[in-house]
Amino acid sequence: MVNTDGLKALAGKRAVKAEALWTPPTMADFREGFVLAFDPSLSATGFVWLASVVTPIGHRLEVHSGEVHGTKAPEDVKGKMADVMRGQQLHWSFRNLLESFLPIKDDVEVVHEAPPTGGGRIRSPESALLASLALRIAAEGLGFILAPPVAVATHRKLVCGRVKDVDKKEEHRVLGTWARDLVLGYDRHVTNEAKRDALCVGLTHLAR
């Protein structure tokens, strides 16, 4: 019988070495741009206004503001119709937010996390679908530039250098280890889970 312990040990060393090669993103990984980034959800849509600017004194990444937009189901409406009405509420909430950016409409891009494609243990996939639709209708109606959505796996790859065995909690932990120093306004504006998700989306958009 052939002893393969040596091969297994070598494979393990290669895996550790490959993981160690990953380094967190640096300023050079991000292009210039102004991004309104969203993590759509009926209960708590995270939003950040992210700017990447090159000036004579250097490149700056900064979160100018962060918000959470949520809805509650009407007391007298149940089931899927309640979700539809919550999506309608979100549309007007997003529209009011975006209207404040109309003076710079042509200079900003709106980007959101891609809705789930199905499978897994997502309890309410319609939440992200309806919230994304509400956002896109609001943005398009006001003439904003809509960027292609960012998949969860894509922003986890940017933030952590890998996708396997990375959940939301781990992604947010790793994000804090490098974004706190790289992104101005992180501690002030990125104060909860929804905003951290939105920041991951915005940073990934600027890096692709």
Written description of the protein model:
With 208 residues, the chain is of the alpha/beta class. It has one domain (28-207): 2-Layer Sandwich (Nucleotidyltransferase, domain 5), CATH 3.30.420. Helix content is 47%, strand content 19%. The chain contains seven helices and six strands. It has helices at residues 5-20, 80-99, 125-142, 152-160, 168-182, 186-189, 193-207; strands at 33-39, 45-55, 58-69, 108-112, 145-146, 183-184. It has a six-stranded mixed β-sheet. Strand 2 and strand 3 (58-69) form a beta hairpin. Helix 2 runs parallel beside helix 3 (125-142) and helix 4 (152-160) crosses helix 7 (193-207). The longest helix is centred in the middle third of the chain and has 20 residues, at 80-99.
Short description:
The protein has 208 residues and is α/β, with parallel strands linked by helices. It has seven helices and six strands; from the N terminus they run αβββαβαβααβαα.
